[in-house]
Design a protein that fits this description.
Layout: E1 8-11, H1 15-27, E2 33-37, E3 42-50, E4 56-63, E5 72-76, E6 79-83, E7 88-91, E8 96-98, E9 101-104, E10 108-110, E11 120-122, H2 126-136, E12 141-145, H3 149-157, E13 162-166, H4 179-193, E14 255-259, E15 264-269, H5 274-277, E16 289-293, E17 299-302, E18 304-307, E19 311-313, E20 334-336, E21 347-349, E22 354-356, H6 371-385, E23 400-405, E24 408-414, E25 425-431, E26 443-449, E27 452-458
Parallel strand pairs: 1-2, 1-9, 2-5, 9-21, 11-18, 12-13, 12-18, 13-14, 20-22
Antiparallel strand pairs: 3-4, 6-7, 7-8, 10-19, 15-16, 16-17, 23-24, 24-27, 25-26, 26-27
Helix pairs in contact: 1-6
This protein binds flavin-adenine dinucleotide.
Flavin-adenine dinucleotide (FAD) is lined by residues 11-17, 36-39, 43, 78-79, 105-107, 123-124, 149-150, 221, 223-226, 228, 230, 314, 317, 351-352, 369-372, 374, 403.
Amino acid sequence: MGRQPKKIVIVGGGIAATSCVDEVYKLQPSANIVLISSSPVVKKAFQKVQVTNRTFHFGVEEAQQQDIPLQVQLIIGTVKYVDFLAQRVTLESGTCYLYDKLCLCTGAIPKSIAPNNPRVLTLRDTTSLERLCNALRSCNRIAIVGNGGIALELVYALQGCEIYWIIRDTTIGTAFFDEETSEFLWEVFEDSTRKDSYTGATIDTVEPIESFQEDDFIKEPLGFSPGPNWLYYEQNSDDKGKPLSRLRGLLSAKKVNVLNNCHVLSVHCNHVDSKDIFDSNIQPNSWPISVQLSKYPHSLGCDWLISAVGVKPNTKFLQSTPLLLYPEEENEGIVVNCRMETNLENVYAAGDCCKVVDNECSKWWFQMRLWSQAFFMGKVAAHSLLETGEDYSMYFELFTHVTEFFGTKIVLLGRYNAEALGPDFEIITYQTPRDIDLSERKLIRIVLYKGRMYGAVLV
Ligand SMILES: Cc1cc2nc3c(=O)[nH]c(=O)nc-3n(C[C@H](O)[C@H](O)[C@H](O)COP(=O)(O)OP(=O)(O)OC[C@H]3O[C@@H](n4cnc5c(N)ncnc54)[C@H](O)[C@@H]3O)c2cc1C
């Protein structure tokens, strides 16, 4: 192990930062660690179930100050500026901290399609989930925009209000799945709801007047991203300890309308009085919000619109510094190699805020903003900044993700979606027929490239 660093400053209170803190502390209990986080509660990940040698099911829990090792100085504050030459971080409060080693774990912030519209909810953290929960208490119709994991989980969980799911693509869940898997999951979804769910479109006639840019983002980084079961947190202190559903069961029936191959052009707030919004005799065209869509001549009226259109690395405060950010417009992640080293000496980055650019990563691994990756990146950063010389290439050997969509366990391995393989790949799929019991339903999809297995989807 190398020379003991004088002061290690880790910025962030999410999974990447806490796994870095824990690993540094484990490797060097006497290390001088300062953890700076905007959020008063920090998030910790733990490996819940080891599915295979390299595949883990993750759990995430909230940690209070007392759960952080005593030796770690926890500072609640937001880093405003980093002077990389002077090795100094400055908080919004004006307080400065010098560092010998710095690890940036500032996460990502969600893009919002209409950030200033009070009827548009952008899910980011536990506070925004509380807002969603309150909004759903008396809600007749909701529109969800986006086709990633958050949208998938919401559509499954929301009950009792009519849902309009607006997706750019032809099929659902394209961030994760090919068409075949997507169709299989949709069948599972329909059968599992066992209600008269249907697809179609309902359009009302309120004309929109506002427009927005898709690259408008919410202004402030809030807390950390929520953990697994983020939709099913306890609702208040009375419920503590009970596995109470946050959303499921608030209301009772489900109607889902998928509006595919279309996107939102503009969102208009109709300024309906709040007492009218929840009136069951609500008049057509008097929805609080109307959404104009690319494919339809009229706008869609609803109570709330949930924006789930992806995230962007939280690196704005690092612009105009010598730290190298990925040049792509939508993804200005901090460029790191697979040792989490940035272009600057003594500066590391991990989790959603970084972009791994390294030829040493295997062709079966790619970056996705997930708990599991934030967790191991934090660990790798700890080894790098302590110069342990440990070989961590195993973390970049194979992409693995264990998750659940529509109540169904899903394992994704390697190049499971055949991305970046060119035209010469083959797919072998096995799936059980639709008429067998839901619990027995399976899909196995293997991606072969030049006779070798490159990836798999197991549902
Ligand atoms: C609604 C939602 C659902 C998700 N569901 C899943 C899922 O099912 N499975 C999955 O694998 N992943 C999921 N994710 C993604 C996952 O949560 C993230 O990939 C992961 O939490 C990233 O961890 P992180 O530590 O990099 O960032 P974060 O958890 O976002 O933490 C960033 C931390 O940095 C702090 N911070 C930011 N800026 C500053 C600053 N300037 N100064 C000081 N502190 C700062 C923040 O307060 C926060 O504590 C979901 C994300 C969201 C938003």
